[in-house]
Amino acid sequence: MNMQPKTLLQKENNFSVWYNEILKRAEILDVRYPVKGVYVWYPYGYKLRNLIYAILRSLMDKEHEETLFPLLIPKEELMKEREHIKGFEEEVFWVTKGGSTELDIPLALRPTSETAIYPVFKVWIRSHRDLPLRIYQIVNTFRYETRHTRPLIRLREITSFKEAHTAHANRADAEEQVKKAVALYKSFFDELAIPYVITRRPEWDKFPGAEYSIAFDTLMPDGKAMQIATIHLLGESFARTFDIKYEDKDGSLKYVNQTCYGISERCVAAVIAVHGDDHGLILPPGVAPIQVVIVPIVYSSGGKNGEVEKVCFAMYETLKKAGIRVFFDNSGDRPGAKYYRWEMKGVPLRIEIGPRDMRSNSCEFVRRDDGSRTQVPLVDVVSAVKRTLNEIQSCIAKRAKETFFANIYKSEEEPSTKAAHGIVSIFLCKSERCGREAEERFGISVLGEAIYEDEDARGRKNEGTCMICSRKAKRVYVARAY
Ligand SMILES: [Zn+2]
């Protein structure tokens, strides 16, 4: 058996190296594909991705319908919305040839799908009875990234973009949808035990074509913020460009009001980065491809060991029937090698059974999140596994939250030092000039104004003077950012 090197990884000291090593050693993503910014999911990584997206799907399916739009967008549609194309122009991949023939109309690989979907909305939406219309798709999108690409985080092919698009009869309904989307994303990240701040992006840095944008940011172990979800109120801007109108009850024709919101595989990056440690991944049980691994403590097969393996296999069958994602590692490797492998892959719970446990009709539970060991009677295994997985889920959520909020600061002066390892709230006015100057001067990015949070309850003053121009200002979050 090909043993992997056992050198300890150092997440806190060198996150970047840790991250790349984990993707490889835990078999999440293979970075050896010969196109820059384009990567291959290993089967194990793809299972993790699918379990995470299953949660997202089940939340979306309550009020949205899943659909699938084409990858190719005709140039004329992509170019229609002026602000929108300005925001994406430099990032579009173009298909200009079919075989050796130049295409009459160049086709864009979708960088996002507004301009693929809204011409169809124009056809689908006729009357007020067609509203609200709420759809989503999970697709790959392409962006010609010129910055340093990074697996799952900054990509040329985003493989797993969940984008939702909704149309409503009026602005109030659209704004209500924005609130619902925020609530939905909160539930999603809560299930992944990923902490976040929610901000309203500055006017000068919103989604191209939107009236306003809301973002979720989490904190990576290197102290940088990472945007993990965005929600946009589009209002009537795209409806006017794509002529999406409906006939109201009184017979009048009106433009629809729209929203769109998206999440990419950055959510997988967040799960990996936020929870993992020097031994590898730590996966929330809800999304772990293997929730329990059974390891027989035997040093050769056959003989007395046959009994141990029999008990292990019976336990495997029982747990599987109980709906647990369980794996019985009866490979020929030594137990130590098995521990290493499953710790690296973030399996939340390991069950060990050796001859001594057999004599007492018990087994040993070893938790991945804190390494603790508990002796459990064999007859109680199913209920004990379920209980322990729940405990692990809440423990890692608590730990992630504590770390996160310990790294959110407020600062009245120079934010640079604090922003070296966290998110800082400072007073900054709404002007682009001050925003850009703050970014330049302090080496940070402006995330936006904190919303949907009771700031006063935390004893923070919300009104102050802008750090740059001294005019009246509100608190905004800033950080070094991905
Ligand atoms: Zn200012």
Key descriptive features of the protein:
single chain; 482 residues; alpha+beta; BirA Bifunctional Protein, domain 2; Rossmann fold; Translation Initiation Factor IF3; 3 domains; twelve-stranded mixed sheet; five-stranded mixed sheet; 14 helices; 33% helix; binds zinc ion
What does this protein structure show overall?
- The longest helix is centred in the last third of the chain and has 26 residues, at 381-406.
- This protein has helices spanning 15-25, 43-60, 75-78, 82-88, 114-124, 171-191, 237-242, 266-275, 305-321, 335-344, 355-359, 381-406, 416-419, 432-442; strands spanning 29-30, 40-41, 65-66, 72-74, 94-98, 101-109, 133-142, 157-168, 197-200, 212-219, 225-235, 245-247, 253-255, 257-263, 292-296, 326-328, 349-353, 362-367, 373-377, 408-410, 423-428, 445-450, 463-465, 472-479.
- It has 3 domains: 15-275, BirA Bifunctional Protein, domain 2; 285-396, Anticodon-binding domain (Rossmann fold); 408-479, 2-Layer Sandwich (Translation Initiation Factor IF3).
- It has 482 residues and is an alpha+beta fold.
- Strand 15, helix 9 and strand 16 form a beta-alpha-beta unit.
- Strands 3, 7, 8, 9, 10, 11, 14, 20, 21, 22, 23 and 24 form a 12-stranded mixed β-sheet that branches.
- It is built from 14 helices and 24 strands.
- It starts with 14 loop residues before the first helix and ends with a strand.
- It is globular.
- Helices cover 33% and strands 27% of the residues.
- Zinc ion (ZN) is lined by residues 429, 431, 434, 466, 468-469, 471.
